[in-house]
């Protein structure tokens, strides 16, 4: 919604960002001149999404070979992404190379001029970047802040408010209001804040905080608090920072033109993220990939942090990108750089706890979440995350206690949430409490009758217990209708059909599921059972042997070995050999079975 068709093609600066493959290919012919330790460190840091270390290492590698154009470019781009001031001399060095004067270098030099207060030079550098589609999109913001810094407030406001037909008009209007406020024109700022609030299709953090601060400055404290409270109540994540945001209600988040420029770059990164999420795999073939969008977004956030190193919103977005790319450690370091005194610190702490839960920092994650729960006793989000953390550690008794607290809080707040019931059902299931598991799943289905996850969980659990198989089949057939390509659901339905004696349909479903998920021990066990019951004993034993080799959960391993015992008792020599073979120890932290996450 935020982009027109012209921006679906690859942005100029994304195409110009040098790739690691190009560095590596070039370096093979000049390896004697390269600081190999620094270069390898840069490669590893880039692979891990650590732009700070990548920038330092590429700069060290480039220092050893100043004629290596690709190393210089990589050192430059990574320094930009890291928000490192060293990007400035690198921009000047790159500009002297053939084709080195790029959109990126123009923006870097413009930002540096802005930081030095040379606004005429900043405007000139920004003008050089105007040909790029994305830079062109935010160019009105960059030039408007340059104009404001040169005391041309009216021209800056008029330039932004006279733009028509752009989906960014609400954001242009917000910045026009900020320019008026920074220029000490509160009446004009109030008019523009009001106009922006009418145009904005929902709450915007920058607008809401700025408008609330304006109300406060006008002596309208009640309106200020109500406005901020409305945004906080609408966003569970921001609700964690509710107290801090209210405490900072009188503070304008933008007080200098440099901070205004930084916010413009954060907006650009946001737009790129939206474009990436809206891009389908089909139209992505001729346009930029998700990775290119992420790289471009990180460049914009690097610009923002170079102008305002304390901008928490930039670091939060950067950490989100790093998480999406699988760089959990880099995301963790990014979040740790957000000051504990920042109003958004509780949001950063929550995000950090989620990252810790996904890595090897489980104790730290639990401690952070316990603290957030204590500090926000009326907030469901941290309580639910704490329960999930206990579940991730397979501490099911504590998980159940915490899920119960979360459910009671949700009920007290009149919030019906099928997923919370589902999660509590998983905890009950792991504690072998079938009556409560079944009750929660049925209650969840009453809220979300077309949710395949619930239909599969309940249907399969009933099939495991041979409880009302026709009803289990009905639930699972409905799940297949809703999600026909899900291998777990197909396996569940196949198993129900086998248990009902329909080996033909059951075997076909199980074979298809095994083709989709060949490394699932549960699916292989079921298929082996189907083969055995169909008289294909050798194939059945082979399938059980495969299932054992996939390190099944203890419950599933017991079923597989019981099946092999039956086969051995029936005289099957292969089954007897398998049972007498040394048993492998299942690794720690193994995942759960497919039906019960």
UniProtKB/TrEMBL annotation:
InterPro entries assigned: TPR-like_helical_dom_sf, TPR_rpt, Ycf3
Region (Disordered): 567-597
Alphabetical list of Pfam families matching this protein: TPR_19
Composition bias type Polar residues, residue spans: 587-597
TPR repeats: 521-554
Domain of life (superkingdom): Bacteria
Keyword Ribosomal protein: no
Protein name, entry field: Tetratricopeptide repeat family protein
Species of origin: Acetobacter orientalis
């Amino acid at each position: 919604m935020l982009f027109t068709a012209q921006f679906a093609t690859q942005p100029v600066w994304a195409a110009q960002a040098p790739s690691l493959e190009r560095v590596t290919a070039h370096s093979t012919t000049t390896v004697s001149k390269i600081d190999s330790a620094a270069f390898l460190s840069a490669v590893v840091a880039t692979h891990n999404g650590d732009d700070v270390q990548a920038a330092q290492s590429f700069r060290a590698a480039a220092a050893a070979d100043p004629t290596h154009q690709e190393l210089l470019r990589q050192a430059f781009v990574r320094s930009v992404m890291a928000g490192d001031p060293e990007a400035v001399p690198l921009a000047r060095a790159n500009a002297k190379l053939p084709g080195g004067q790029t959109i990126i270098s123009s923006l870097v030099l413009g930002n540096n001029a802005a930081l030095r207060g040379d606004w005429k030079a900043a405007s000139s550098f920004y003008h050089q970047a105007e040909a790029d589609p994305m830079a062109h999109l935010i160019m009105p913001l960059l030039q408007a802040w340059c104009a404001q810094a040169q005391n041309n407030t009216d021209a800056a406001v008029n330039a932004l408010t006279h733009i028509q037909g752009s989906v960014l008009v609400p954001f242009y209007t917000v910045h026009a209001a900020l320019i008026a406020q920074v220029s000490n024109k509160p009446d004009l700022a109030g008019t523009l804040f009001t106009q922006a609030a009418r145009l904005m299709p929902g709450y915007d953090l920058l607008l809401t905080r700025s408008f609330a601060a304006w109300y406060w400055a006008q002596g309208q404290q009640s309106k200020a608090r109500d406005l901020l409270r409305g945004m906080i109540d609408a966003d569970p994540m921001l609700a964690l920072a509710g107290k801090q945001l209210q405490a900072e209600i009188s503070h304008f988040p933008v007080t200098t033109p440099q901070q205004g420029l930084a916010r413009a770059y954060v907006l650009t990164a946001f737009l790129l993220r939206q474009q990436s999420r809206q891009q389908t795999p089909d139209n992505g073939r001729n346009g930029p990939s998700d990775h290119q969008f992420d790289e471009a977004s990180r460049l914009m956030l690097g610009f923002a942090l170079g102008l305002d190193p304390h901008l928490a919103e930039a670091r939060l977005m950067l950490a989100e990108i790093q998480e999406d790319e699988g760089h959990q450690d880099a995301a963790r370091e990014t979040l740790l750089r957000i000051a504990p005194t920042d109003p958004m610190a509780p949001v950063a702490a929550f995000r950090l706890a989620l990252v810790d839960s996904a890595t090897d920092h489980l104790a730290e994650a639990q401690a952070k979440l316990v603290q957030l729960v204590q500090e926000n006793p009326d907030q469901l989000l941290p309580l639910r995350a704490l329960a999930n953390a206990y579940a991730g550690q397979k501490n099911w008794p504590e998980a159940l206690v915490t899920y119960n607290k979360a459910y009671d809080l949700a009920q007290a707040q009149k919030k019906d949430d099928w997923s919370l019931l589902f999660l509590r059902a998983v905890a009950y299931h792991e504690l072998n409490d079938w009556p409560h598991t079944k009750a929660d799943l049925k209650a969840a289905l009453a809220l979300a009758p077309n949710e395949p996850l619930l239909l599969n969980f309940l249907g399969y659990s009933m099939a495991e217990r041979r409880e009302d198989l026709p009803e289990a089949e009905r639930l699972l057939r409905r799940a297949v209708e809703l999600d026909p390509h899900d291998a777990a659901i197909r396996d569940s339905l196949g198993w129900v059909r086998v248990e009902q004696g329909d080996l033909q349909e059951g075997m076909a479903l199980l074979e298809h599921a095994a083709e989709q998920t060949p490394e699932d021990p549960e699916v292989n066990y079921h298929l082996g059972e189907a083969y055995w019951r169909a008289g294909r004993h050798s194939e059945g034993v082979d399938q059980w042997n495969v299932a054992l080799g996939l390190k099944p959960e203890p419950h599933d391993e017991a079923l597989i070995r019981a099946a092999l015992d039956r086969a051995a008792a029936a005289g099957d020599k292969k089954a007897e050999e398998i049972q007498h073979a040394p048993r492998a120890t299942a690794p720690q932290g193994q995942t759960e079975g497919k039906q019960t996450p």
